[in-house]
Amino acid sequence: MGKGSQGAKSSKGARSSKGAKGSKGATRSKGGNGTEAVFRALADSTRRSLLDQLFKEDGQTLSSLAEVAAGHALGHTQRLPMTRFGVMKHLRILEDAGLIVTRRLGRQKLHFLNPVPIRLIHDRWIDKYTEPWAATLTGLKKNLEATMERVFEIYIKTTPERLWQAITDPEMRRKYTFGVNVESNWKPRSTYKGIAGSETVSPAMTILEGENLEVAPPRRLVQSFRALWSDDVKREGTSRVTWEIERIGDSCRLMVVHDQLREGANSELYGGWPMILSGLKTLLETGELLTTPGSLRYLQPTTA
């Protein structure tokens, strides 16, 4: 939703894995240890090549990625055979760091890029030292367009009930969705609207709308989604957003799947999700608002 960095993509019709069949979130580090895990995962050139391959073609199987990793290890660009076990170890490290998400499509286990941990590192450090627009993930945006589905995952130290409240309460929602109030009675088959708040550059404008297709608090929310903030996004029609919440110890795993997008859909529809989820995590864990340039881009400038 909105403009910004991109998310993971997948094939048509993929369905979310449940519990232990998903991203193995119960074993993943969080907080500071999670940041260390991201850096450790990125330190290996073979793992970086696996992520590069997912940039080019997301939703790949273990066998497909094993061929790429073998070619990298031997210094070749072509795909060469490699044992599945070695690649599985690299993929598990990437998954434990949150850099990839796994989902099942029939009997296949597919792997998708998850850019949220990179976004969190960007927000914590890079914004301090670079010009705002130079620090955006433009390379990720370029490589992840023209897909049918985007998958985002984040871990937040909170309860499912508190997370559900942050998603459905208009006052809380506007604090991490670029100042947009999302209003609904949150009943199945009810409608919702996103209205730009008075602090935004377009006060009272209807930014988005849709229908609550499935409402199962505090675990799952499925919505149709229609963007209205420009003529370009209006022409994209209706897509679908699914929020899935799973308790993991004293924290929650939140997966957001934005699918039913046409091939080559306008990236404004899904590009803002990493920033939104970063803001949601910041709000629930610290009580503060995310103040990176991207998170403030649609707010009216303050006067000195």
Architecture overview:
- The strands form two sheets. This protein has an eight-stranded antiparallel β-sheet. It has a two-stranded antiparallel ribbon with strand order 2-3.
- It has helices at 31-42, 45-56, 62-73, 84-96, 116-124, 138-143, 160-168, 170-174, 231-234, 273-286, and strands spanning 8-9, 100-105, 108-113, 150-156, 180-183, 191-196, 206-216, 220-227, 238-248, 251-259.
- Residues 3-32, 76-81, 133-137 and 142-146 have low confidence and may be disordered.
- 32% of the residues lie in helices and 23% in strands.
- The protein is globular.
- β2 and β3 form a beta hairpin.
- With 304 residues, it is an alpha+beta fold.
- It has a single domain, classed as START domain (Alpha-D-Glucose-1,6-Bisphosphate, Chain A, domain 4, 2-Layer Sandwich).
- α2 (45-56) packs across α3 (62-73), α3 packs across α4 and α5 (116-124) crosses α10 (273-286).
- It is built from ten helices and ten strands.
Describe what is shown at a glance:
It contains 10 helices and 10 strands.
Distance between the termini: 31 Å
Proportion of residues in helical segments: 25-40%
Q: Enumerate the spans where pLDDT stays under 50 for 5 or more consecutive residues.
A: 3-32, 76-81, 133-137, 142-146
Order of helices and strands: EHHHHEEHHEHHEEEEHEEH
Overall strand count: 10
